[in-house]
Amino acid sequence: MRPLAAALLAAVLATACSERAAPVPTASFSASEIAQHVHRDGDDLLTAGLGLDGLRSPVPPPFADADAPTAQELRRRAVWANWRGIADLAPGGGFGEIYGAAEPVPGREFHALLKLPGAAHPHRVMLQLPDAFDAEKRCVVVAASSGSRGIYGAIALAGAWGLPRGCAVAYTDKGAGTGWFDTASGQGATLDGTPGGTDQTLEFAPEVETGAGPRVLVKHAHSGDNPEADWGRHVQQAADFALQVLSRELGQPFTHADTRVIAVGVSNGAGAVLRAAELDGDWLDGVVAVSPNILPGEGGRPLYDYATEAALLMPCALASSAFDNEPLARPGGVVPPAWMLRCETLAQAGLLSEADPAAHAQEAYARLRANGWTDAALVAGTLSVGFDLWRAVAVTYAAAYARSGSGDMPCGYGFAMLDADGLPRAPTLAERSAWWSDSAGIPPAAGVQLIDTLAAGIDPALPGLLCLRGLWDGQGEHAAALRAGIGATRAALPRASLPVMVMHGSDDGLVPEAFSGGAYAAWAQANGRDVRYWRIANAQHFDAFLGLPPLAMRYVPLMPYAYRGLDAMWSHLADGAPLPASAEIAATPRALRADGIEPLRPEHLALP
Asked: Could you give the residue numbers annotated as active site?
């Protein structure tokens, strides 16, 4: 740890904690006090007292008063939402039977806001310290939230694997998260998740011009910090935070030299731990990255490039006859009219050259295939098309890469609650109170909608999408700024001798493995790094969707491989066991029986 940062954090942590910690000295490293909370007796670290049955419930834990949910109620609901957003908990899906468990883990949580040197806004960190922490084994699992999720966004993997083993688990929201800011009320999320004003310490407190109108500002898009460029440093700070808390709470020094630190993440969280792997020093002992969104030093494609390409072309491409026998691409047995409409509007905009309308879908399909998309990734991409996820991702990342801050977002987009006429309105107190627990980090979510001021014509999303794409392949100051922001996210090689395991589904339709995890592993291995790569057949990006029968019969979950990778990494570091070799894993989905879909069995997974 850097000497200045260590001194500042040590000063912060010297302040006594309680259920409501006293203010701490202001320092560039810290942006808040540290709050400690006890979770025992019907409440716990891993499930917030819900247990597996409660996590499986399709109904969220209720608030006694929707206008004033308590911190405990918000935490319980955030834990519920983040488990269900990442893992397939459906009976027969394998959780609790083949891998994982959700037994109560009593202990304490420590929350704080930390700032990277030079950052305008903080990232939230959390340490979960189980009562059964084994000070002899001295292990810390450090994780970054997936996607743009809040601080509990990695609990279904890092927490569920590490806490039952007596490890402390440290988390970071990596500069994103669900502490949204409402310009109408001037309120955001406090350290315990409840709403508060700018006279309190907020997770995200942007400077907003008076009279800007009702808008919702999210840290990932509106901080002006381009957090993705610093993902690795966010992870390192969370690990440093963990050791400092352990040192104080247990009355003995914990250092990187005597404490095993394993970093793990999914999706964006996996990209973050791979960025952490490249940082100097022996502070990190092993890395497990699942479906990483990562731009390797050589090869691969940036997320913004293929997301804007997919947002434009994929709806039309999926209308191609190549997908006539794919149920996911033919809901109800027909091509959705909106997909055919996109073909028409692309041709009108001059983006398709074929004169015959019947050939437009084939042209869009051929273009995506030529740019590296596989049929399997395109089929899985129907999920992102259906949820309008490509546009949501592109809008948020465009603002982050361009560092537009709390001002106007690129291409006239914005986030707000909408009234019956589709106009921005102020949120109700109940709506605003639930953002921290219920949202996944970027709108549309928790009632907040995406505003598209360029919307026009029979395909209203198209003008804005063309503008977003122009920021990638066009000219001008704004395009140059965005591309510079993307360039700052390109990864360096992991530290020599650091063991790294990467696993990615061959069918991933959101972060295609050929553009990200597979390209990263090939590049790192070619440069002599100890990276093991599992390419898993019939696996896509979203385990949480596998509770739906059509998807359960098409895909296997990724979480069992993540748990297996963590087991293997632990055995390697603790016992000197060799890491499993790189592998092409021939997983097979479950079949439909007369009584329903068969339960997931080990032979479906072919775990190494």
From this structure: 267
Average pLDDT along the chain, 608 residues, taken 10 residues at a time: 37 35 37 90 97 97 98 98 97 95 96 94 97 93 97 98 97 97 96 95 89 90 97 96 94 93 98 97 96 97 98 98 95 95 96 88 97 98 96 98 95 96 96 97 95 97 98 95 98 97 98 98 98 98 95 97 98 97 98 92 96
Name beta bridge partners: 36: 110
Of the candidates 173, 165, 108, 46, which has an alpha carbon nearest to the alpha carbon of residue 566? 165
Which residue intervals of 197-348 are DSSP H helices?
219-222, 231-250, 268-277, 303-317, 337-348
Consecutive H or E run containing 111: strand 107-114
- The whole-angstrom separation of Cα 146 and Cα 190 is 21
Q: Taking each helix axis as running N to C, give the angle between helix 477-487 and helix 303-317, from 0 to 180 degrees, rounded to the nearest 10.
A: 110
Q: What is the CA radius of gyration of the chain?
A: 23
Contact 469, 302 (CB under 8 A): no
In whole angstroms, what is the distance from residue 104 CA to residue 596 CA? 31
DSSP assignment of 33-60, as one string?
--EEEEE-SS--TTTTT-HHHHHH-SSP
Strands 168-172, 123-130: pairing kind: antiparallel
Separation between Cα atoms, residue 22 and residue 134, nearest integer Å: 29
In angstroms, how far is CA 406 from the centroid of its own chain? Answer: 22
Give the strand order in the sheet containing 107-114. Answer: 35-39, 107-114, 123-130, 168-172, 139-144, 260-266, 286-290, 500-505, 531-536, 583-585
Query: Which residues are CB-neighbours of 150 under 8 A, at least 6 positions away?
Result: 78, 82, 124, 173, 177, 178, 179, 436, 439, 441
Task: Tell me, rounded to whole angstroms, the distance of Cα 556 from its chain centroid.
Answer: 20
- Residue 271 CA to residue 517 CA, distance in Å, equals 9
Q: How far apart are the C-alpha atoms of 508 and 354, rounded to whole Å?
A: 29
The residue whose two tokens read 């295609």 is 512
Spatial separation of the C-alpha atoms in residues 266 and 414, rounded to whole Å: 27
Nearest to 316 by CA among 283, 355, 364: 364
The whole-angstrom distance between residue 104's C-alpha and the CA centroid of its chain comes to 25
Selection from 313, 269, 309 nearest residue 291 by Cα: 269
Rounded (10°) angle between helices 389-402 and 303-317: 160
Q: What is the pTM of this model?
A: 0.94
Nearest to 534 by CA among 561, 552, 511, 516: 561
Measuring CA to CA, how many Å separate 508 from each of 326, 374, 532, 604?
Answer: 16, 10, 19, 18
pLDDT tens per residue across span 305-347: 999 999 999 999 999 999 999 999 999 999 999 999 999 999 9
**Cβ atoms 5, 12 nearer than 8 A:** no
Alpha-carbon gap, residue 13 to 114, rounded angstroms: 12
